[in-house]
Structure formats: structure tokens, C-alpha cells
Write a structure and sequence with these properties.
about 40% helix; alpha+beta; about 110 residues
Amino acid sequence: MGYRVLASPLVLSQIRETAAHLKDDLGLPRSATALLDRVEEVIGIMESLPRSFPLDEEAGRRAGGEIRWARVGSYKLYFDIDDDGGAVRLQTFRHFRQNPRGLPAADLSFR
């Protein structure tokens, strides 16, 4: 079964801001490009094998559902799977070291 990957406005903004920070603030344009390339690669995997990514139990408790994550360099891309709608819904994009307990529950719901 193929899944559509849907991105919330929040996650799109977070990815763009992270890439811009790498490029403009840190002077790392190659790192910004590599980050965006890796996001695209991960999305490609999600389209066919979204359950190959690990569950985040703490984020799932906070969201009241099953939340998975994919590592993208030094970042985590959190998502859920809507089997009825045939979609993977990207929720939030955070630095890998950020504790999921610090994530607002609202950031873990597709909006």
C-alpha cells in the first residue's frame, strides 16, 4: 500500500527555518542542502514503509495516539499514520536532543 505524505504548516515552517538557519546564520549552505535532501529521502521511505520507523512512546502518550519518528541528521521528524486515509502526516521537526516531554501536545497533532 502506498501512502501520501502530508505536512502540517508547522512542520513545513520548522524545516524551512532550520535549513535557513544552517545556510544563513551558520554559513553552512551544503549542510542546508543535505538536510533538505535527507528530508526528501525519508519521505520517500515513508510513502511505502512508514512502520519501518520507530515509535516514540512518550510523544504518543502526549498526543494520545501512535507517534513515530525518523532521524534526519541531527533532527527528528515526528509523524503519525492514518491508515483509513492512506496518509502519513508529518507533525513536527525538532533537534534530536530535544526531550519529547518538552514538546507541546499541540505540536503532535496534525493541523
